[in-house]
Design brief:
The chain is mainly alpha-helical. The protein contains 2 helices and no strands. The protein has one domain: OmpA-like domain (60s Ribosomal Protein L30, Chain: A). The N and C termini lie far apart (about 30 Å). About 15% of the residues are buried.
Length: about 70
């Protein structure tokens, strides 16, 4: 999970952890095996956009999903 640059480091780590957990729970609800999911909270440390405006801040409030090999197909 990621957060925008506003707020303290501690607050943003906590917020991005909640965002990552919500994404994880959604994927589990959609049938993805929980053992195949890991999550990381980056806080404001890896912004997608750099500027001081709402349009940038909104891009930085996000969760990124990476799909790797290992899925079984029927």
């Amino acid at each position: 999970g990621h957060a925008d640059e506003r707020g303290t480091r501690e607050y943003n780590i906590s917020l991005s952890a909640r965002r990552a957990t919500a994404t994880r729970q959604f994927l589990i609800g959609e049938g993805v095996d929980a053992n195949r999911i890991s999550s990381i909270a980056y806080g404001k440390e890896r912004p997608a956009a750099l500027c001081d405006a709402e349009q940038c801040w909104s891009q930085n409030r996000r969760a990124v999903t990476v799909i790797t090999g290992g899925a079984k197909t029927s």
